[in-house]
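Bug #77: duplicate submission created two jobs. Keeping one. Sequence:
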Amino acid sequence: MKTSQIIDLEIMRKKRLMLEKEHPLRQLFWEVTLRCNLACRHCGSDCRKEATTADMPLEHFLPVLDDVATITEPNKVMINTVGGEPLVREDILECGKAITDRGFRWGFVTNGVLLNKDLLKQLLDAGLRSIAVSLDGLEEEHNWLRGNSFSGAMNAITLLTKTKNLVWDVITCVNQRNFSSLQLLKQQLIAVGVKKWRIFTIFPQGRAKLNPELFLTPEQFRQLMEFIATTRNNGEINLSYSCEGFLGEYEGKVRNHFYRCDAGTMTASVLANGDISGCMSIRSQYAQGNIYHDRFSDVWNNRFEKMRNRRWMKKDQCAHCKAWDWCAGGPFHLRGDSGEMLHCNYLTLCSAK
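Kept job's structure:
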């Protein structure tokens, strides 16, 4: 890595240590439903049209917001209503308005199928500040992954290109099926007016672990990093890679920030069953409490030690890794039930050289 990258990584390391100590809450995910109108092959939550866990009633979540307001200014916290598909909730507008009325910012991720002009206006009137739409390739590739929903996602994206005063982007999960057509997808997104695009790779959780076609080879992963870096340098579209893991020589090249896992330091979640965790992707074994018998602020201020002090992760592959000081064990959601590493992007890149 270049000297300038190392300097920036050292700055980020010191910031991470400060955040572990101060843990200012800035993003709170609320899993509003485990129901979904699709059944995507890669779903980490294994969501279905009929969920075994009922939607959490709004009146059960509002005390959490009132409690959060006692430890930080609401306008500093983004509340992301996630699922499942948030728009299957009949009271999603009521949920959004209640969040907004309490001074919090509100956003969500959607597959776009249920979004139309009238609903978008109502969402904006309820206070919606940000939205992300999932589009996972050209029509055939997207529909292979998510079912017959490409037209719905594209309609939603087209609608958003005509909307002012809303932060939004498109999310793509890269896999074996869509990898070779990313350049064509990029051109399609640019043509319809998309300005921001985020790329994710898929990790083995939920339904995803059953399908090897979802995972890139080390060589493909390195090529993906090159694609992102080149696109960013060309300035064609604001493309970035997700927060999933330390990327070695690509740090500072494929994201708007250097790697840092904020689970438990700036990010928390309340799951549909009331569990309090660091982020939506972390396994249930790492829940720190439950809103039905714990006060959220108490959990946030006095627990999360396993996520804030990650020195226990310095074992196995991490024990003698030269990137440890900057990576600190990788993103928490890529750790298994007993803390073992399931996947490491840095090692993947190293093996592809």
